[in-house]
Amino acid sequence: MEILEILKAVLFGIVEGITEWLPISSTGHMILLDEFVKLDVSPEFYSMFQVVIQLGAILAVVVLFWNDFFPFGKKDNQQPLAQTGVLSYVKWDKFMLWFKILVSCVPAAVVGLLFDEQLEAMFYNYQTVSIALIVFGIAFIVIENRNASQHSRINSLADITFNTALLIGIFQLIAAIFPGTSRSGATIVGALLLGVSRTVAAEFTFFLAIPVMFGASLLKLVKFGFLFTTAELIILVIGMIVAFMVSVVVIKFLMGYIKKHDFKVFGWYRIVLGILVLAYFLMR
Description:
The chain has one domain (about 5-284). By secondary structure, the protein is mainly alpha-helical. The protein has twelve helices and no strands. It has helices at about 5-20, 25-35, 45-50, 55-65, 65-70, 90-125, 125-145, 160-175, 185-195, 200-225, 230-255, 265-284. Helix 6 packs parallel to helix 8 (about 160-175). The longest helix has about 30 residues, at about 90-125. Its EC number is 3.6.1.27. This is Undecaprenyl-diphosphatase. Catalyzes the dephosphorylation of undecaprenyl diphosphate (UPP). Confers resistance to bacitracin. It is found in: Cell membrane. It comes from Coprobacillus cateniformis.
């Protein structure tokens, strides 16, 4: 296996780790990267790779936020299911959080299972990605300007109701249908519109990514099959490892950034990128 293919896998991992969590569309960036840096793999493997590489990014969330969502243990158990015995190790508030996350997953899961291949064939193109980048970039700016004079109604994960969780899931569905929307971008925009604070919107988006991305990756792996060549396995593993390491840094940056800043800078970035993607492909 050539060292060049390993370097390409590293580059894809870096781009995935950065763009998966910032609301700027990992799909849009992957499409652009694929134009300039072609992995020497089959189309079937690449279709699977660009989804499964996200597992590395998801692992970063699991590592960084383990204590925030793991539903078992006595330490910091604010809502034990019982005061003594085995049930005293059950963190009911964490279970409630997971129930809400699963409710948010339902819309995208149903559509993804039924129409994954059809949607990819219809909308996985530079026109859709460019428009989605621009439209949601504008949405970020408009919503942040509107929210500048308003106070958030939901300032903790516990304040998110099941109705709110379902509505956030419907916003996530937009990203599942239209690549370039950005899964994190769609859920954060939806959460902000529903009165969720920036910090809570980002955290809920991170947690929501865990079952969504695991499910999407499993679906792609099953469709591709588990018979990898040595070169394919090395490319996939390296991409995931790099995506994990970069994601740890990016998630920490984003959580610190949004405590003092809004999301408008990402909105402007999306608009500029969308215009560049559209111009590049039109002039190619």
